[in-house]
Amino acid sequence: MRDKKLSMLIEGAIMIAVAEVLSMLPTGFGPYNISIGVIPIILFAFRHGTIKGFLIGFTYGLLKIVLGDIQGVVPLQIAIEYSVPYLSLGFAGLVGDKIRQAAKRGDKAYGYIATGTIIGCFARYIWHYIAGVLYWGHFAPEGQSPYVYSLIVNGGSMVVTTIATIIVLSLLYANSKRLFRLNV
C-alpha cells in the first residue's frame, strides 16, 4: 500500500513538472492562449480520480505562484487565478473510472475523455472569468462591459484549450491505452 502511495506521489510530481514545462511553450495567438499545461493534470485526474486530481492541480497552481509565473495584484486575485482554477481541473476525474474501465477492456473512451476535459476546463474557466471581471475588466475596449470582455477573452482561451486537450488526450488514448490505466 505504501509503495502505491509513493508511486502515485512520484507520478503526480512528474505530471506537475511536465505541466510546467508545457506551460513554457509559446501557444498564444491574439488574445487567446492554449494552456497545454493542463493536459498532464487532467490525465492524472483521469488516472487517479477527482480528489487526487484536486491535490495535484492545487499543487501545480502553488508551484506557479512560487516560481513567480503569475500576474498578481492582491492575494485574493492570485488565489482566484492560480491555486483554485488548477485545483478545479481535478473535476475531470469524475469520469476517470469510466475511462480506466474502457482502457482495461480495450474499448473506446473518447466521449468520456471529451466529457471529463470539458468538465475540468469549464470549472477552471469559471474562476478565470471571475478574475477577468474583477481584476482585468479595466482592459476592456471602451464601451465594452468587463463581463463581455472576460467572456470573450477567457472563454476563447478555454475553448481552444479544451479542444487541444481533447485532441491530445484522445491521440494518447488511441496510441497507448496503458497510460489511462492505473496498473501500467
TrEMBL record:
The chain crosses the membrane at residues 29-46, 53-73, 79-97, 109-127, 147-174. It comes from the Bacteria. InterPro entries: Thia_Transptr_ThiT. The keyword Transmembrane helix applies. It holds the Pfam family Thia_YuaJ. The keyword GTP-binding does not apply. Keywords: Membrane, Transmembrane, Transmembrane helix. NCBIfam families: ECF_ThiT_YuaJ. This is Energy-coupled thiamine transporter ThiT. It comes from Dolosigranulum savutiense. The lineage of its organism: Bacteria, Bacillati, Bacillota, Bacilli, Lactobacillales. The gene is thiT.
